[in-house]
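Researcher: Re-running this chain for the archive, since the previous output was lost when a drive failed. Same request as before.
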Amino acid sequence: MNEPTDFGPDRPVLLRGGTVLPMDDAHSVLPCTDVLVVGDRIAEVGQDLPAPDGAVVVDATDGIVMPGMIDTHRHMWQTAMRGYGADWTLTQYFVWYYLEYGKLWRPEDVHAGNLLAAIEAIDAGVTTVVDWSHGLRTVDHADAAVDALQAVPGRFVLAYGNIQAPPAEWTGAPEFRDFVRRRITGDDMLGFQIAFDVTGDPAFPEKPAFEVARDLGVPVTTHAGVWGATSDDGIRLMHEHGFMTPETVYVHAASLSADSYHRIAATGGSISVSTESEQSAGQGYPPTWAIRAHDIPVSLSMDTSVWWSGDLFSAMRTTLGADRSREHMEAHVKGETVTHCSLRADQVVDWATRGGARAIGRGDDLGSIEAGRKADIVLIKNDASPVSFPLLNPYGHVAFQAQRGDVHTVLVNGRVVKHEHRLVGVDLAAARREVERTVEYLRSTLGEEAWQKGMNPDIPETKILDNPYTYTDYHSASTHSR
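Model: Regenerated structure tokens:
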């Protein structure tokens, strides 16, 4: 194994000779191109760039250099329960977290989940994550969430939420304002949103929470168009009261009418699509086909590791699959055949990078590779993998071939946080110990019977159809002809 490289805070980094995806409007591909990072910025992009004195030179030959990916909706506090809800529906998720056991989380459990999720993100080349943190029952929980985020060298946005209380109640509490004053200080590495859902109640009880967000000058992110939970009525109420803005992020938006999509498009908001979640949990069919028809900006997200993998390679792959499968299905119903795919690989790579940057209000300095931008960069390269070559269609390779194990080097704000497939400056063992303590606490508090029942919900009975081609005495035509 190579000796660890000294990535001092003042050392420039030169990624040499990779295939660069700058994520410009033309979705260009720049072969054999260098990217020079000085401080927290991209200093230059070009071929055969001279290496400054003392620079770390990373060989990007046969690799893909792209902007860091941006996840606009992840419940990071749930990551300590990784995979526990693999067989849940959305109803089972709601019951387990909202009504029963989510209220058991202590501040240290939120810290453990956030810490592991933050580490997992940078390991997978996700350099910015919106922590849709709706488990913040108290300000102590919120402080623990931020402490964990700031302990990891990634870029994060805390979307403050509390599913155990009405939004008007917790946003109006003096301790919430005090938290914002203490912890949201304009740090470039920590953004802020307010996260809550709109029930569609005609009284519009969420109005005071929107007013708090407006007063603080921060965006609202909301689960919209979730089957059985949030509907067109919520969108209509937001619109009629003037709370739909270009900064608003609508998560899922999978079961909305054309009228709601028109309102979102007209007010400039964006939609965070969590395709794995929508496919499996039941919010509605992943809506990219409808979003594209209304020209609404899109970003991608993975939702929660209690079900799914915390990377955006899976999100890109499943988004393409869901969009294309619907397109084929609708054509087949009409007796037609799709001859050209509408959604392309370069578009979902754009959604995973530039789309996320725009959604969080960072479109001017994140999400693309060009001089002057923040140096949030990912190198995809794995010389030990037979899947790393040939590299023919770089956008297609990112969307369909690459995975977290192929993430070779990651820079966040100019700092190398992963190199040669190994995390840099991260104490993974300490995170493991925290998560183990949380799992032990939750399992012992629930009791073994409830723990197992939660992880293994009942399986609905499957009716086997009668088969008219089942015979007790079968003879083939060739037998009868003898």
